[in-house]
Structure formats: structure tokens, C-alpha cells
Amino acid sequence: MINANNRAEIAQTIAVVIPTYKARNHIISVINGIGAEVSRIYVIDDCCPDRTGDFVTSDCKDERVCVIKHTENQGVGGAVMTGYQAAIKDSMQILVKIDSDGQMDPSLIMDFVCPIISGEADYTKGNRFFDLEKVRSMPKLRLFGNAVLSLMCKLSSGYWNLFDPTNGYTAIHADVASRLPFNKISKRYFFETDILFRLNTLRAVVVDVPMEAKYGDEVSNLKISKIIGEFFVKHMRNFTKRIFYNYYLRDMSLASIELPVGTILALFGSIYGGCHWFYSTKTGLPTPAGTVMLAALTVLMGLQLILAFLSYDISSVPQRAVHVRRNSNKIAK
Known about the structure:
Layout: H1 4-11, E1 14-20, H2 27-32, E2 40-45, H3 52-59, E3 65-69, H4 75-89, E4 94-97, H5 109-117, E5 123-127, H6 132-135, H7 140-157, E6 170-173, H8 174-177, H9 191-201, E7 206-210, H10 224-249, H11 254-283, H12 289-315, H13 322-332
Parallel strand pairs: 1-2, 1-4, 2-3, 5-7
Antiparallel strand pairs: 4-6, 5-6
Helix pairs in contact: 7-10, 9-10, 11-12
């Protein structure tokens, strides 16, 4: 538990990063809602046509605010990474990212920070799906899109315990953030899910934090229907990389054999059986029982091996926080 005396010390290490683009109407209220537990607020104007950065500079009197302006639009990921790098340079320890559109409640910041401070996590992210009653208030298309994206994210990132991957309410320990390859992380809307893949390669612990999103008059720039295809391709790319890194480059186990053998058997059985079925329908001749058994057996064996691999992969979700492990090693030395 974090007591009242420790909260003052923690406040000196917490920074909030707010990427902003076309959110002039909400940005000041978002900043005003950030409590005294935060010592720095970085507003990243991502070449906003509304000149939000200048608006914050002239109208916001909060001394904690630092406005950084991009000369070219880099996307939400690029803006967040700019904020991360600025916060790390200023020796901040916990970096919280919230959006500028007013959908995220700033009063929840400590809910995201506490698991990191206590050593339970390296990275925390919001999950709007814990309260089933409140889920009903979400737009139906967004609800369906998030369900599809969550399944793809579990496969590509390896974090089977997470949901709501596009949720932008996050917090990360600076020790972990400093080890991320900022030049390789996606700078557009794939940022939230791409960073999970990068965190898995570091074996960082990621924890979901229950939250409720607010939907008002803000206009989301993210259109689920337009990005699912793009996200699918990128998820498959990350899945392939993760499997290679974790099961062949860094280490090898029984799961390293189960996946390729299972895939080959399942494909062979499906193709072999499909060809004979097609031939049978064209000629009207019955397929021999042995052929049917061979196709069915290889498919079943392949699926069994793939399921065994998935079971191993699910049980391999990182459990010990990286920043705790690194600090322990420093103390030991």
C-alpha cells in the first residue's frame, strides 16, 4: 500500500504526457483535472491545425505544463514518444499518457501508477470492459471492433491476460520506457498495440486497469472499420517476429517444435483431404476409408499440437516486473 507520506515523494516522479490534435475544446479541462500527485505535464502539439499548443501556452496557467510542438504531424505514437523522451530527460520515473479529448478521467491516474510503484507491473493500461453494465454505453461498432482487435493483439503481443488493446490510457516506468526502440515503434494508431509487442520482447509485466470511458461531443479520429485490415497485417508481422524471438532466437522448448509440426500436419491433412473430396465430387467415386482417416488424423494431430503450443504460450506471460528486477540487480552489485 502507498501511504500519505509516500504520496508526496511519488508526486515528484510522475509525469503526464498529453498528445493533442484537434482537441482545443477539451485540452484545458483535461489539464485542470490533473491532481497534485503529478509534477510535470507534457502537452505535445502534433502540428495541430487549431494551434492547440499556442492556445495552451496563452490560456493555461498551470506551472507544471510544458508545451512541445511538432513541425510535422507524426501521429499519436510519435507524439507520445516525444513526450516520453522529454520526461525521461527530466528524470521522471512514471510516465502516464492520457488523451486530450476528455474521454479519460484524470482522477484515475493513481490507479495506473500504484501497480508500477508497488512493483506489480512495468506498464499499465486501461480496460473499459470490466463493468458489463457500462459497456452498453459504448458505440456498438467500437465494441465489436475492439473485440476483434483484442483477439489479434493477444496473438501478436503474447499478453493473453489483456483486453481493449487500443485503449490509450496508460502508464509506464521510465526504466522500461528508456529501453524501448522509439525509432521502430509505430507512430500512428497502431502505437498502443505495437508497444505491447515491444514490451513483450523486454519481458515486461503489463496489467489492465478497470476504467470507464466518457463519450461526449468529441470526434474520434480513429475509424475501426478502416484500420482493421491494416492492423491485421501488422499483427501477423508482429506475431511472426515474437515467435521467432521468443521460441527460436532466445530460447527453444517443446513449444518450438509443437507449432511448426502442428501447422504442417494441419495443412497437409486439410489439403490432402480437400483434394480427395474435390476429386470424389467430380467423379462420383467414393473416397477410400483409409484416405479419409489419414486426412482426419493428421488434421486432428496438427490441431492438438497447435493447442498445446497456445497453452504453453498463454502460461508464458511475463510475471516479474523488469524495473524491479533491474533495481534488485543494481542493489546486489
